[in-house]
Amino acid sequence: MKQRQLGDGLTVSALGIGCMPMITGGNIIYGGHADEDEAIATIHEAIELGVTFFDTAEIYGPFQNEELLGKAIRAKGSGARDGLVIATKFGFRFEDQAIVGVDGSPANARRAVEGSLKRLGIDCIDLFYQHRVDPDVPIEDTVGAMADLVREGKVRHIGLSEAAPATLRRAAAVHPIAALQSEYSLWERDVEDDILPTCRDLGIGFVPYSPLGRGFLTGGFQNIDDLPADDWRRNDPRWSQANAATNFAIVDTVREIADDHGVSAAQIALAWLLAQGDDIVPIPGTKRRETMRDSMAAAAVTLTPADLVKLDNAAPRGATSGDRYGEMGMKMVRL
Predict the structure, then answer these.
(1) Residue 335 lies in a domain
(2) Quick check: is 60 catalytic?
(3) Is the pTM of this model over 0.85?
(4) What is the residue range of 316's domain?
């Protein structure tokens, strides 16, 4: 697996693994419940393929996903932790394991890091993100607390997720920011307007989550009825009957180019992201070895200039139908 450089001297594999789908239950379910043994085998094989970057968060479950990743690393055996970049996120407030709001306070950062270290079974988090910006806590206070954790040796690098350009600049003035994590894919290109340029101006790497449009860009679905009844995507506006027909036009073009290259649609969608800059490291979510192998193979796919033009024409900025979250979710992004 090729390597890429994020900010603050952090080197990772060109593609990472989004671990969120791997838990057997919890608050966010994609494609049915996961099988723990298969999820652990997927992590192990990813390591063998040269993947070093694994992404989780305390909110996933909550807590179960970090526990699973930690269990998988320990099960891999002595030395498995060496060379891995483990990323996790904090920034929410819980009551009875239910999310009741955002919380970017220094006290919450410290509470969260202690819990994440214990669940992951490691002594230092390689990349610690604020999951969502708290509008009631100055970003300087949040990042200052995270910087304290770096000085204490509990965190190596700091990241933010879904932060606006002005927030990024204020944060970077306090401590180097290694990465911004935000949604970015062929059907979500708004970051190209001012967020991605700001990251590059500040030397911040970019980590796209949902790089496959939450599975939509894989071409494996015909309509929302293909999803399990408890699948979180049934609440996703872009998957709704009202918007899906328009959005499938993007998938048709991805499939055409995939056929030309003899690869999967997922590999084309990921290869497009990789072609947008060497500072971009997508983290496709997976819970099975089969889909993980397919996604990681995208690192070897090279799109032609004609391919890139065709994809840009099929999926220009703003062409996707529907918001990327419901009303509540949209209130927590780009602050």
Answers:
(1) no
(2) yes
(3) yes
(4) 3-330
